Amino acid sequence: MIFSILEHILTHISFSVVSIVLTIFFLTLLVNLDEIIGFFDSSDKGIIITFFGITGLLFTRWIYSGHFPLSNLYESLIFLSWSFSIIHMVSYFNKKQQNHLNAITAPSAIFIQGFATSGLLNKMPQSAILVPALQSQWLMMHVSMMILGYGALLCGSLLSIALLVITFRKVGPTFWKKNIKKKFLLNELFSFDVLYYINERNSILLQQNINFSFSRNYYRYQLIQQLDFWSFRIISLGFIFLTVGILSGAVWANETWGSYWNWDPKETWAFITWTIFAIYLHIKTNRNVRGINSAIVASIGFLLIWICYFGVNLLGIGLHSYGSFTSN
Amino acid sequence: MFVTLNPRILHFSKLHPLSRPSSYFYRTRNVSLTTNCKLQKPENGNQRSSSSGSLTKTISLSDSAPPVTEETGMEISGDRVVKGGGDGGGGGGGGDGRGLGFLKKLPRKVLSVLSNLPLAITEMFTIAALMALGTVIEQGETPDFYFQKYPEDNPVFGFFTWRWIFTLGLDHMYSAPIFLGMLALLAASLMACTYTTQIPLVKVARRWSFMKSDEAIKKQEFADTLPRASIQDLGMILMGDGYEVFMKGPSLYAFKGLAGRFAPIGVHIAMLLIMVGGTLSATGSFRGSVTVPQGLNFVMGDVLAPVGFFSIPTDAFNTEVHVNRFTMDYYDSGEVSQFHSDISLRDLNGKEVLRKTISVNDPLRYGGVTVYQTDWSFSALQVTKDGEGPFNLAMAPIKINGDKKLYGTFLPVGDTNAPNVKGISMLARDLQSIVVYDLEGKFAGIRRPNSKLPIEINGMKIVIEDAIGSTGLELKTDPGVPVVYAGFGALMLTTCISYLSHSQIWALQNGTTLVVGGRTNRAKNLFPDDMNRLLDQVPELINKNTSVVSEQS
């Protein structure tokens, strides 16, 4: 009983803090820059609070369910938002290099957290029992690596999508704000990256309003370079996690199902995702290819991760049907 | 004596950890005197100022051998080409047989086509698309299923009918020729790319070279000029940051993270290992599954059926497997938590060689055969009626909607030869509780086996003595597993190492001015910052003479 109360409290803390962070992000869109510098700092702190909230939540579940809290979709979603907040914190403490990860991670964390906590998945939050096949030490290794990999790859591919959006957006300086708002309604995830970019640019414009168009293009170019670099680094990292996750899953499958590869839909889609990001990394090795091409591949990868993570579970087919919507 | 060594290179070994301030260095260097020597003037030393030429340095020779020279490597590959006469491995070297010229050119052409990056990317895309298609199209159904699902008169997307499926073998995608062919092509590309692109890249990276002109250094991705600085200080600082430093006269070459260059080769080799292992598994394994009631036995060889052409039975196939006991664990809610089978292996003489209780996630391995716990079934029910018996009633699986299992049996009452036999029906979902229905089919009660609690139906006392389960075992031999696991290990390791950046730095002392340039292959955006941080540590020479004096003291 005390556990479930504690769990509720932690869930609500992390969710509400994340929503406050999101509100701050909203505000930065509307309010002038001078007031939002402090806001940005507080949003980082908010994410740290969220991180501890989710960590506590996961530990609570671990203690009272008696197994590693990654046995169903709800728990894996919580873990995903946890890994987003980790990535956010890493980029926050790594102040040496300015990067744009926090513009990706904070909204991603709230969407995942919101989705997990919302009523959409009615029965999901109940801690399910472990079916025989899941009772293994490999559960911890395999699932946590997979989710960390998904988290990092999602971040990286979102940065790539941001790169694409910025590259293909050709608007004059007078009406960009309107355009952003329109886009905001269309696709929130996209616009957060753009929003950050706008803020970035805004500050620069305020600081040195000498040559408008020149500085705009220069910083746009710089931003694109930075996005390209960071998406490459994050995807490389996520690729490592994904590789380790898939391979540990294969070893586990050889212990449980009698074969290290069964062409189960989930396995296959994870392998497809892996292949796509392998393609991304190969395109990156070629210096003559511009960042856009690899960014397109990365955004395909973004879709594939969601198919792999959700789509297959939605159908509840194959051997990985534990986390499906219908299994409870 | 070190000066007389043929490549006159001073290789700083990592004797000094270099987190100390640079002023400390002068002291350390003088204390740990190993050899003092005067550098000979190199051939191109005309740019050097007299002050740096007469510098006295403390050097220590590293044990690590200098990199293999390129010439020997080339000779080896040349020899092989001459002997093999175009065996597909032709890498270089001029051959002598003219008739073989074409044969020699062909593999090279094939190699260059295969190692083409866009081709490899296309192959990967195709494989990904085929796999995706394999999850969309139902696999392994009967032909009738495809006739109905993909009819000719109403094709999916206007063209896709069952003809496509059967021509391309899409109903068994992952063993279809088109898919395996693509994988084989990808493997060929992997090998070609490793041979023609990656290995030469590493050779170039290993064959470190000094840059002899300012212009060449300034052309690098990162370049900086330090006005009053000494190349020795830079060398020390780079060493402290984990660089391997080589110095020759006024030139410096340093690198870090060479493993990051090697690792992609390792990734490719690991992929090939996994593919080889997969092929071994597909061609040389045995599989089989069996459902054995508790207390019975079977011979491994009877269950295992060959999968590929190269499946060769072993001695272990004569082993007899005896299921001593089959049990199930339950959660408080009544759901199954784990299955256990107590299994004995007996050799031809009937001697027990191994006994183990296996469960899901905990298989038994013996002589290359692995026995997995995969399934269970309800074999029989032991019942006594009014003290008679016990009777063994075979349980039959009853098919209902959903995944949950249901078993039932029937105990006839009265004249069994009558046209409509009446009796007691018993249903069970698991070995835990049996639901009993009376002659009219009405619910009579629930009993647990072993409880010895009789249930009275129409004046009869029925006792459910025991529920006998049968265990579902899967047996497998797979010669590919060790190879695949080796590939897995290598892949994990090399993917991680691939994340490292290979950074190279060149520097040239030009009078008191130091020109530094460098490049890296992965963390490009971070490299300038790192470099600036390192260069900030390089002490500024205030006066030429004092610095020389301090070093000589």
TrEMBL record, chain A:
Keywords: Chloroplast, Cytochrome c-type biogenesis, Membrane, Plastid, Thylakoid, Transmembrane, Transmembrane helix. Signal peptide: none annotated. The chain crosses the membrane at residues 12-33, 45-64, 76-94, 141-168, 230-253, 268-283, 295-319. It is found in: Membrane; Plastid, Chloroplast thylakoid membrane. It is a multi-pass membrane protein. GO terms for molecular function: heme binding. It comes from the Eukaryota. GO terms for biological process: cytochrome complex assembly. Pfam families: Cytochrom_C_asm. May interact with Ccs1. This is Cytochrome c biogenesis protein CcsA. It comes from Capsella rubella. The gene is ccsA.
TrEMBL record, chain B:
It comes from Capsella rubella. GO terms for cellular component: membrane. Its main location: membrane. InterPro entries: Cyt_c_bgen_Ccs1/CcsB/ResB, ResB-like_domain. It is found in: Membrane. Residues 38-48 have a biased composition (Polar residues). The keyword Metal-binding does not apply. Residues 83-95 have a biased composition (Gly residues). Residues 38-95 are annotated as: Disordered. It is a multi-pass membrane protein. Residues 49-62 have a biased composition (Low complexity). GO terms for biological process: cytochrome complex assembly. The chain crosses the membrane at residues 113-137, 178-202, 258-280. Keywords: Cytochrome c-type biogenesis, Membrane, Transmembrane, Transmembrane helix. It comes from the Eukaryota. Residues 119-381, 424-530 form the ResB-like domain. This is ResB-like domain-containing protein. The keyword GTP-binding does not apply.
